[in-house]
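Example record for the data management plan.
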Amino acid sequence: MGKQTAEDEEFRKGTSNHRLDRRSGSANRLAYLLDRWQPPETAVLVATALIVGLGAGFGAVIFRWLIGWFTTLSFVTAQSALSFMGRYYVIIIPAIGGLFVGPMIYFFAREAKGHGVPEVMEAVAMRGGRIRPIVVVIKSLASSICIGSGGSVGREGPIVQIGSALGSTLGQILHLSDDRIRNLVACGAAGGIAATFNAPIAGVLFALEIILGEFSAGYFSTVVISSVMASIIGRIFLGDEPAFPVPPYSMVSPWELLLYAVLGIVAAFVAIAFTRTLYKFEDIFDAWRFPEYFKPVVGGLGMGIIGLYFPDLFGVGYEAIERALLGEMLGGMVLLLLVLKVIATSLTIGSGGSGGIFAPSLFIGSMLGAAYGVAVHHWLPTITAAPGAYALVGMAAVFAGAARAPITSIIILFEMTDDYRIILPLMFATVISTLLSEHLSRESIYTLKLTRRGIHLERGRDIDVMQSITVGEAMTPDPETVSVNTTLRELADRFATSHYHGYPVLDEEGKLCGVVTLQDLERVTRNGKRPPGATVEQICTRNPLVAYPDEPLWAALKRIGTRDIGRLPVVSREDPTKLVGLIRGNDIIRAYNKAIARRVELQHRAERLRLGKVTGTEFVEVDVHPASPLVGRQIKELDLPSDCVLISIQRGRRLVIPHGDTVLQPGDRVTALVDTHCRELFQSQFEKLDPMRAAELEREKRAKPFAEV
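Corresponding structural encoding:
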């Protein structure tokens, strides 16, 4: 049983090491040699980081080449083949791309759908960084076809997922620990960004700030190595030029910072609008009863109609961004392109296309900044820079507001333009946009996708398992208290006998008025200022921090960490003076274990739902009611549908594997794998009750209170 459980857990996490072993004998031998020779850990880390950087660099080069090839095929070769349609041929090009992208993602790698970064974050947080190797191939092809055929998405999400999958695959092949695999996932993400955008520093920061969510020396060193190696490969094959050649912009007047601050505020609202529109389109397409693998075709048709009149919206759109940075676009046109880009990107990704949101964010930000720059330069020409400077700052501000990654936004724009002179307003507007966006919406454009799946991330890497536990579930109800009139001698005796380190303090009316701790008593005793008749009222802390039963436990933990206190009184939200419980360290530990168990259960359910969607079956749980006629009957005696298999029976704390002679008992929870069409028939077998037995149980229930009296 133990061996089977371990294998089930490995399967649940994603790609099992057993599968990789069977696929590659040479890789298995390499893992064996590493186990045999036991090389220094530093050597393994550096070597694997170099290999991942090398792979991510070549992956970025191949991905860029694929995009170029599919773009030529879609808009040059296809133009000749569809010459009878004239300029209207562009309408069906994105739809043809969707015809390939949809089935490819649906049947081979569902995680390749969308912009990719949330899937990497989920793998890091929940599966030890394990990503299926097939994602490298499917993501490369699907995204290159989507972008090459005109999909309004970017390159960064796919290349991050491709590089991360390469790092994860190497870690799994070598049987590395979860922490090391996560490290290699970050190395792959950094290498992909560094190679495709010629931005090695930004690649490092992106991996640490967004993918891992933490900056540490252990991760930093290997991520830098991978980023440098990938950047070298990228520069050899793709050149050493900045992504956006821009004129030398600089700040004209110190007063101009106020105008950039306003741009940062506007950028935050635009970033939130972009995020909400994107997921609104996803909701619309998800709710639409239509074959999922054909939905990208419909999105492609919509994209083609928009692109017919506004071809700048096809693909990544870097040419339009460059014109905005050079100040070559008019205010009215850039505002129209801003709105249409939000719609076009939402249409492409929402319908099931594959591509990133980084380039669209830059596009939207550049159009916003260009329009704003035209306006302020018209009204204040003597103290403002050219509109292109505001377009540059707008790019960073919108991406920072959407992704909540201010450091990455600042550095990547600096590296992509190779211009340092605009750095002050760039930093100022970016930070303002980030802070305001966090105030308006807790989730970023990346984490919102995970939140909608029930996955809550705190600082990127650590999953907030306490999100599912409330204070009321974790607290100790009716805790021991002391009165304000308790003497200090009595308080000392209470501490000595109970071994508690603190008590809530109640006044004469039984209302909470403070907290007294062992430290409070020791402070008075140490100073020798304890008068003979001193009471708790004289030393307790008034107006203590409190928690409420209905709030999530993580909020209470955050409050405790702010003041470094050991306990938190829990009070009624309607009456803050009414004490209902207390949160202590032991309560938190128990709650954490409970939250972990709940998260594992949710993960199992998610896997079962995913399996059901693929196979046309679903897992169904039913309870055996005490009045059910099935009580006392054997499994082989039940009249169950033919397309039904009983998987397990939860009996109290025991898990029973059902056999033909297994007898059902009251309170059993039965789990079955059922064909979708047979679900109602299966459930109806357990919903039937014996009327006489049900009436007897009801009479016993009513008589019980009288018997107790």
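Summary line stored alongside the record: The chain has a mean pLDDT of 81.
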